[in-house]
Each structure stands twice: as structure tokens, then as C-alpha cells.
Batch of 2 targets.
Target 1
Amino acid sequence: TWGANRDARLIKISYEWGNVPPIAKISAYKTAGREPLPLAFFSAGSADPEGDDLSFEWRIHPGDRVFAKTPDANLTLEQPGNYVVELRAIDAQGGIGSANLPVVVGNTPPEVRFVEPQSGDFFTPGQPLRYKISVRDLEDGDSEQFDELFEGRTFLRARFTAGDGAAEKVEPGLALMKQSDCFNCHAHEQRIVGPPLLEIADRYRAQPEALESSVERVIKGSSGQWGEVPMLPHPTVHPDQIRMMVRYIYALEPGQNTANVVRGLFGQITPPADPKLREAILEASYTDQGRPPAAPLAAAFTVQLRSRKLEAEFADEKHGLRVLGNFLGAIDHGHYARFAAVHLGNTASVTFRVASAGQGGAIELRAGSVDGPLLASTTVQPTGGWDKWVELTAPFTPEPGRRRDVYVVFKNPGQGGLMNLDWLRFNESAE
């Protein structure tokens, strides 16, 4: 049906009557490894919106062979190569929902980790941040021994945010792809089972007339376009949604998805000089060389860093006190806030931004618990108002190489309404 919205623009609303297809979900303990490869698959999470009982079919591609009709299934693949396992969930009315997982036999996924930094470590906007990545792969070896081999296939991606909980702006086509199973088989610049998205864009970017045929291939499935492993059909995804996804892919340009991306096992990157930044998310990834006919496999590892300036209201745990807008208040004796896994080295002092129209009191930083080792302390005198902020700096006792929970403990025995805390900052050098 067609109708008009409040802005008098025409919008199309689609209604589908009758049976709603089931939702199929598939999971597995393992989807890649050396041959022979025993596999166990599970349909947990599959359901029918109308509550019908479901029957199941497990299929292996290429070949479209049914190997089980039970909710969960086992399969051993003897020959190396690239496969797709499909689960079909079928309701009593004949409605079918499907899901799939790529399987690679003959190649083992690599293992990626950060030597430095570690999750919870500090970064400073505008100042260089060092990193070192370690990779191990059963077929390729160890990056410590074959660094030249691994250098060119290792990437670091960095993202810096204000960490204010605001929703990240994502192009609608990309958002739909993340909700689907697209990234099971495709990556932006690396081959998994299907071709890289950028390679698809390079083929069709200047061919707008190819849009509808691409949409049809996604809906009905296809084979022989990019290799021996077929793309399975997606009949339950609405064509308008697929068009949005395909348009997103066609619009990709080289380098578009590589902002804040560097190549190599070690080096440094410099965050933007924006004092509002609170979080840095670093992702290390490696794509192995494959073991023909088994396709290359990629693995990634992510760490989340924090600015040296910690906003008090974002503490990992708050006991007794309350969040009042963008600071902590209603603080009585014995209340505390906890920040998880703080790096305790390379800090000489801590600065607190506080205000008090009440009793004032002491702030103590404790390691590991509310009565753990004392890292720093300062005394807060009444400042003349709850919005009269001052900054107080106290020496810090570092614990090099340690990462521990830090407790901000407030003390003034028998007293309440001690102070407000806006933020605390771990300073690299004494002020």
C-alpha cells in the first residue's frame, strides 16, 4: 500500500500475510583445522515466530548433500578444501529459514595477541602510542622467528571515541550486513570463503545495471561466480534490504575502510589531539597464507585502552554514592568507586577534580580492594559550593608491570555529604 507521511513524502509499506518463516541459527565448536576434521554443529536459538515445531536439515556444500536431519549434527570432512555447512529450519507450514557457516579443512586459524599494550592501559590524546603484535600459525610459524613473513600480513586498526555511549553512525547497508551472515564469508579486503567486498566493488562499481542481477543472486544463491564454493540463497531477506547492502558494497573504494590502519608487527600510532577522547580500541589482525586448496584464514584480537583522565561517573562499580549528571555525588564515609584493570606503572601523581559544600574528607586510591595497598591520598576541604570545583594533586606510588582494580575510597568517619568527584587523572610526571 502507498501512503503519505507528515512531510507529504510518499513511502511504501510492505505487508506479508500468511506464514512467517522460521529463524535458523547455527553454531559450532570449530569451523577450521587440519584434515580429517571432526565437526559438531548446533541449532540452539532456532525458533518459529508462530510457535510451530521445527524439523531440521543439515547440508554440506559444494554438493548440496543432506548429512543429518536432527537438531544437532556431527560431520567429519576428510578432504582439504573450502566448504559451507547450511542449516535449514522447517516449520509445519513448509516455511524455511536457513543459516550457514563456512568450513575450511586443511588450514588452522592463526592466533593473534598484543604484547603491548594490554586492555586497561592508558593512552594520551596527541601523544605516540607504541604497540607490538605476536602471531602464531601452525602452517606459517611464529612471528618471533619469521618476522619478515608476518610483517606484510599483519594489520593494526585503531578507533578513538569519546566513550559517551552515543550510538556509532553506521551506513544503513553496512548495518544490515552486520545483522545478517555476510561477514561469515566476506571481509572488506581479505578473502575468507567468498571474495573480498572491495574486489566485488571493483568488478561492479561502474555497472549500475548490475545491481538487480546481484540482488537476485543473493536471494536465489549462485555458483561459479567467484570460485567453487557456492553462495547459498537468502530467500527470507527482503529485496529492499539486499539492495541497500549491495549498494554499500558497490560504493566501496580502495582505502575507504582503512582509516587509522597500519601494517606491521610493531611500531607506534598517534591518537588525535582531542582531550575529549576517553577510549581507544585497537584491533590486531593477521591473514595466513592458506594451504591450498584450503583458503587463507584470518584472526583478530582487540584491546581497549583508556585515557589517563577517567570520568568518575563511568567507574566500573559504584558503591553507595550516586551518579549526578556527569559526576559522582551523595558521597558518605565508606562509599567507593572501582575502576577495573588499571595499569599501575608509569604514573607519578594523580589529580582529582572535586567540589564540596559539606564536610569534606579524604580520598584514598587503593589497589585490589577497599583496604588494599595505598596508592595515593589527598584531603578535600570544603570549597564553598557543590559547583565550586578545585583540582588536587597527590603523589602516586606506582607498581610497574601491574594491572589491578583501583578503588577510589571516600573517608570521614561518621559524616555524610562529603564531596562531589568529577574526574581523576593519572599523570605521567609529577606536577
Target 2
Amino acid sequence: MEGKVKALITGIDGFVGSHLTSLLLGEGTQVFGLVHDMGRVHRLQAVADRVDLVPGDVTRSEDLARVLDRVMPDEIYHLAGAAHVQGSWEMRRATYEVNFLAAVNLFEAMKAVRSRARVLVVGSSHEYGTAPSGLGEMPLSEDSPLRPLSPYAVSKVCQEMAAYQASHAEGLDIVMVRPFNHAGPGQDTSFVCADFAERVARIARGEAPPTIEVGDLAPQRDFTDVRDVVRAYRLLLARAPRGEVYNVCSGRPHSIGEVLNLLIGLAGRQIEVREARGRFRAVEIPILVGSPDKIRKAVGWTPAIPFEQTLQDIYDFHVNLHRAGV
């Protein structure tokens, strides 16, 4: 292993972490993963013999210092965190701890062991919130105002500010990203594309009546395939200047209704769509579309996988899960 780049991924067992792991292993990187629950690493089964998994809790600075001292990584992809916007309203304190305070813990641990690793800190498009002028302010650039509307969004703004301070005032080598919605095979069904795909696939197999209950289908989101997202993360950590923040997005909006219609089309079935008030969010952002200009100019990244292909792959994933008896 001597001479290989060593990468530590926090949250390696998550949706994005598993795809990033595959990308890095394909490049010959030696991958270490910080895992909170060693019993929940099913996404890594295919590469388990090629990854060094280390137990630890990102909310405990001593765990992070221990792992950093052991691994001494060249790169750190800080993916661990609470990812659910809606759930953050019920778990406000936990969301702040695992998003904001965990990042502070990481930076403190790096200073304690004198780590010189390059770090990618993952924020969110939800930091932007609702633009008062709506479409007139789209697409959102990195200079657009931050107007967080949920505890999740606040936690990500705080995380980013901590990263900015650690980079600009304390000399840590940090790059920050604000990814917009991403999707792909293996995503949890608590996210819209996977949720719709799983329900449509069940209807297509005759396991559920041909009716889908939905919330608001009007909001528009900027979707990027997760495999393009992790490629962006890799390029940014390899080439981007320290202390900068980048949108990771396509620049193209798709309504939630369009997502559902495309998936129904893949199933080839007549499906009735019904509104259900219980599926509406208390606070909804009508449109979130980002500008990818800065990342394109900095590292030459543009999305390569069409949105229709992403939805096809998600739908096929759920069809194949059924065939495998999972």
C-alpha cells in the first residue's frame, strides 16, 4: 500500500459514501471509512475486502483524533451527517450536533494530531432557502444570499461557516460544496426519486393497487446523478483552491411531478395520482436551481449522466431488488 493516496471517508456507509468509495478504489486510492454502526454497512458489501472500516462517532472529538492519528489520511471526505430536511424539525438538536458540531470536532481533531489532510466539507443547496424574487434569482450562484428555512439548512450554514473560519483563519486545507438534489441507484426511499421508483415498481409487479398518494408536485429541483456528484467531489479535492465553496448541480430544473410522470412511463402502467395532505411539507421551497459555472471553470466538471438515465437506473434497481428477493 506504500505510496498510495490515503482517503478517509466519514459516513462511508451512506448512499453517497458508497458511490464515492467505488470511484476512489477504481483510481487506486487506499480507502478508510469511519463508521458509526458497523452493523449497517450493507452498501459496502461488494468492496468490503478492499476498504478499512474504523468504528467511531463524529460527535466525539476523541474518536476522530484517534482515527486520524491511526490513518494519517492525505484526504478527508466529510460526508457524515443528518440528511433529512423534514426530519430536522423533530430532531433539531441532533441535527445541529451531527452536522455543525461534528465538523467542529473534525477540525479540532485535525489540529490535535497535526493533520495536513485536504478536506471536503459537504453542505447543501437548502442553505439558499427561498429566493424572494423566485425565478428572477435563478440559477443560484455561490454569491447568492443564504436564507436557511429549516433546522437542517441552519446546521449546514453553521457547518460551512466553521469550515470557512478554520480554512481562512487557522490554515486548514478545506474545500466546501453545496450540492443540489442528487439521486441514483441505492438511495434511501425517504428521498423522492427512490420513493416514487419503489412505489411505481410495486404497482408494476401487481403488488399494490394502481394508485399513488403524493404531496406537492409543483416544486422544482436541480437533480444530478450521484455518480456525477462524487466525480465532482473528487475533482474539487484534487484541484480546487482552498477555502472556496462550489455548487454541485446541473443548472436544469425538474418538477417533482415530472419525476413521477417519467417513472410511471417506465412502468408502462396506468396509475392514478392522488393528493394526500399528510404528504405536504410544512415549509416548502418552490424552486432550487443552481449555477454550475464556478465548478466548471475551476475543475472542468459538468454532469455526464442524463436525468432520464438516472431515473431508469433507479427504477431498474428496485426491479432487480425484487428479483433478488431482497
